[in-house]
Model the fold of this input.
Amino acid sequence: MSLSADPRWGEALSHLSDYLGNHVRVSLAALALGLAISLPLAILTRNRPAPRAILLALASIVQTVPGLALLALFYPLLLLAASVTLAWFGVSFSAFGFLPAMLALALYSMLPVLRNGITGLNGIDPALIEAAKGVGMTARQSLIMVELPLALPVMMAGIRTAAVWVIGTATLSTPIGQTSLGNYIFAGLQTQNWVFVLFGCFASALLALAVDQLLGLIESGLRHRSRLRTGLGGIGIAALVAATLVPTMGRSSQGYVVGAKTFAEQYVLSALLRDRLQAAGLSATARSGLGSSVIFEALKAGDIDLYVDYSGTLWANQLHRTDIKPRAELLADLKTALAKDKITLLGELGFENAYALVIPKKRAEALGVRTIADLAAHASTLSIAGDYEFFSRPEWAALQKAYGLQFRAQRQMQPDFMYAAVATGEVDVIAGYTSDGLIAKYDLTALEDPKHAIPPYDAVLLLAPKRAGDEKLQAALKPLLGKIDIATMREANLRASGNDANSSPDAVAKWLWEKVGRR
Amino acid sequence: MPSKLAISYQQVTKSFGRLKAVDDVSLDVAEGEFLAIVGGSGSGKTTLLRLANRLIEADAGTITVAGEDVRNVDPVALRRRIGYVFQSGGLFPHLSVADNIGITPKLLGEPPAAIATRVDELLDLVQLDRAEHRDRLPEALSGGQRQRVGVARALAAKPRIVLMDEPFGALDPLTRDALGDDYRSLHRSLGLTTVMITHDMTEAILLADRIAVMRGGKLLAQGTPAELSNSGDAYVLELLRTPRRQVERLNALLPASGAA
Done:
């Protein structure tokens, strides 16, 4: 089958107006805000070396913060601000999605605008500024009639750089709840859907190119004082904004929002939940690719209505508990604790997605290793890989303590690549997930945990406070509770990791429902 | 009579840090007079010129323009009624010739039609072809043309006083000579008061009614060329020797009646 006939292109295209529209809106809003702050600052500090140096240093520091981290930092910051305004003024705002993304991106846009603004203004021949004064201009007239027009090419170059950076970095705003072209990239990377990854990259590159060219047109129009070119550029930008506003205008903001974290199982489950709600006649959309620290807060704040989390994760990250209790007891405690935040733990889906130490079956047999306790004896000669958070999680500390594990080396890896890495011997052991389909695919085995150092990780369905008494919603979801066993989920995850049309989360969700719906 | 004075400096001093750029200078410029200020670089001549329209503020002493203490006049309004020709033209590179010339009337809020008419008059006055030059950018002009535009710009708001900062210094000798003569006749026909800075004594003698000589911030001497040649100051006499020697050599080299 040719690449162009792949139905995933069609699926990608169907999301385009939503993703692109949100991407354009957040990027242009951020750029506008960034310019509104940076340009006056550049003008004010151009003749004041000390504040200018401080400003540029601060802007440079912001630039050294990785985009993803900067975006993620704004979420808790705004949550804090929202709680403060609620306490002081009785008004709150959503710290989710648009606002943190726009603020972080605006901050990100400041350096090139500031630096080029100041360079452009300082680069003007002092004789011309003297001449402006000499012909009778006030300081303000000199700025508007002489300095800014002469600095324009350099300033515009900075603005264009900022625009390209912002549009590129906006793809990273997906995990904090801002829909963007990054949704393609995050979803594509997690579900090994390269069509989505390519689509997202191309779309954002084209958008950056288009905006850059339109700004270039405005610049050349301003420089050559051609109203036509300035107008065309302005109309182009306005048309871009309008085009991205129109399709989303008619859409109701009502309806249920299903959240999903950034891995394949979550994409599949959120599609399944969405389908179930729609089947029950409720309007629902999925909000995928949310960071795991963001998603719980988003549920608490009501920005999303429901999502699937794991008992052990909530136990450690939300309740900050380090002790480990038997499964039933932990669930009961969790339910009580979440109820204090008015969050409903509706029930378990039936499978567990726990961390497990995973090695190839053959290797396990060769070493004579069946449990983690057996592995401990060999650990000093082996290397281990885990996802980005594993080694800083309490489970790892608990495992090390319980079994006295001491590995030769430890590495962090993108979860999708871990399994292939351990199968090819790149690393010896990985901290995988029990529900992952790749365990079967690569003929791996999850070692037993006889000391129960790793807490239970039952997949549980959580509902936002405002949905606590929503019987229609709960009735639509109840048929799923207890229905998805580990083998089924593994198979679903394995399907989702494929690289063909049947592996899209939507398709896998349908398969999953066919499998469990009749149970 | 004081009322006839266009510009008057009374014991004016201006320092930049420890350097005394203008040191206790008193100098009068009569209405209708063409005064040249001559001196080497660092003599304070440019500073003295700029004090008159408050591009630079004096530390001590009094400066009057048309009888008014400049400290009592809004500096922006003052500059708009005094023409200023800059050393290398000082034309705004992003504005056309017409927009450069019309800038001060525009700042004064004159209607665009009146400014356009005035620009054409001025192009005629400085002998530039209207149609050919009006819409050009400064970069498309020769050095001499640029300086003509600079003169036209200075005259646009019909000032009574024109200050010139080495206006012809960077031009080739022929252009310089022609432009000097043309300006001299404008000065006379428009009844202007002109203060011109130059480091070239020959140019000063040929164009100005009176010459002021500056050195190290001090005013060494002032007067007509004839009065200056009676000066007892060695530096003034040294300055006058150059044009004399040039004349002697030229007389010796050129036949008395040339082909021209």
Q: What stands out?
A: DSSP finds 21 helices and ten strands in chain A. Residues 3-249 of chain A form a domain with the MetI-like fold fold (CATH 1.10.3720.10). Chain A touches chain B at residues 127-128, 130-138, 141, 145-146, 149-150, 223 (CB under 8 Å).
